[in-house]
Amino acid sequence: MRTHVNSVGLIVRSDPALSFSYPSHIDQSSLDALPQQPGIYIFRDGAGTAIYVGKSVNIRSRVLSHLRTPEEMQMLARSARIDFERTGGEIGALLREAQLIKKLQPVFNQKLRRTREMCGYVLPEESVALQLVYGRERDFAGTDNLFGLFGSRAAALEALRGLVQQHGLCPALLGLEKIARGRPCFAHQIGRCHGACAGAETPEVHRARLLEALGDWQVARWPYGGAIGIVEESDGLRQVQLVDRWCYMGVKPKGRRKPMARGEFDIDVYQILRRPLLGGNLVIEPQ
């Protein structure tokens, strides 16, 4: 809520809704065409450039809510029309939204942008140290003992530091601190490390505690031998969303089709599909 000082020195809080005007400049025919089914929608400027991509189980209701939101005045002021694509259900809308945001890079979408430096941690068998690995060098869909998915090396290191502090792990053993041989890490000196660096805790115990701490970070391997189709249907529209190795390949075309290219791991697709897919909550067709 905005504030200003009036003529007598009083601070006045102004409601943005009071100065908000309905965006009548947006093409009315594009609004009238919006359906009440699942899908994605695209706000476009006067040149036809996509400036925002969204998704909803009810496209019309969601778009109209944007038009009534004063906090989105900047985006609405630049919008000239709204396009849409129906999908067979919510999963299709989520996948298509993520795909289009990466492709179009709309200025008002802050999340789901293309990740240039995808990385994660691998814990080799019988090792006490994590290795930071990158998606450009390794097949994340088929990697065992992979933990955490990050958009940059800096984000990965920051997350690991937080995990180490939370669970009393040794930053020296995990490569976050350099120490001279025979000397404990600084965290142990101030009582935040259980002492694996000083012999107070065995490497085996430290590794077991590390694995327990990493539990929520574990990345699931692709559970199928190849591509699958996720079937959804809404108000007469039936679609099969093709996915391979945690990568969205698009809607399955009707009739014959060419063989699909091999999918490459996508963080956003993984986050969208992991729970419903591994939980058995989706209708699947082998491809």
TrEMBL record:
Which taxonomic lineage does the organism of this UniProt entry have? Bacteria, Pseudomonadati, Pseudomonadota, Betaproteobacteria, Burkholderiales
Q: Which PROSITE patterns match?
A: GIY_YIG
Is Cell membrane tagged as a keyword?
A: no
Offer one example of a GO biological process linked to this entry.
Answer: nucleotide-excision repair
Give the UniProt entry's GO cellular component terms. excinuclease repair complex
Q: Spell out the InterPro entries in the cross-references.
A: GIY-YIG_endonuc, GIY-YIG_endonuc_sf, GIY-YIG_UvrC_Cho, UvrABC_protein_C
* Gene Ontology molecular function, alphabetical: endonuclease activity; hydrolase activity
**Protein name per its UniProtKB record:** Excinuclease cho
Q: Does the record bear Amino-acid biosynthesis in its keywords?
A: no
What species was this sequence derived from? Pseudoduganella ginsengisoli
* Keywords recorded for this protein, A-Z: DNA damage, DNA excision, DNA repair, Endonuclease, Excision nuclease, Hydrolase, Nuclease, SOS response
All copies of domain GIY-YIG, residue ranges: 36-110
